[in-house]
Amino acid sequence: MLVVAIALVAADGRVLLAQRPRGSRHGGLWEFPGGKVESGERPEAALVREVREELGIEIDPRDLAPVGFASEAEAKRHLLLLLYRADRWVGEPTALVADRLAWVAVEAMPALAMPPADRPLVEALARPLDRP
Ligand SMILES: Nc1nc2c([nH]c(=O)n2[C@@H]2O[C@H](COP(=O)(O)OP(=O)(O)OP(=O)(O)O)[C@@H](O)[C@H]2O)c(=O)[nH]1
User: Fold this and answer.
1) Which of 17, 21, 75, 90 falls 20 to 30 Å from 55 in CA-CA distance?
2) Where does the Nudix hydrolase domain start and stop, copy by copy (predicted)?
3) What is the ipTM of this complex?
């Protein structure tokens, strides 16, 4: 299963996380907005579609930069999760699907309940910020 996700980075460095609806798989956990890539779909096009559906914002695919990926064995399938980042978008993110949205400092993410695949991605996201 190929999943794409986005770290929307605000001017103050905080990143948008979405809380998965309770009752769904991983319900209540905080994750990067995104979703499954459909058959024959370009990953970047899937991400543009997902943020439109889930957040009501528009992103230019040229503003997507790769951060890293996670490869995680799940019970019945294997998850390959590609994380991109973007500093520019059009519109105000709205919780159209998620229970809640929150702008979170990367340093605060390790304390949040997130899916296991997200842990290495949070580290990858923090890495460039560590540099002086
Ligand atoms: N968008 C997103 N999905 C993630 C992240 N981490 C992670 O493990 N996932 C998993 O990747 C899949 C995302 O696909 P989706 O959001 O379209 O899944 P879904 O609601 O249809 O649920 P389903 O997998 O039970 O069909 C989910 O299984 C989700 O738990 C993340 O940071 N962002």
Assistant:
1) 75
2) 1-127
3) 0.90
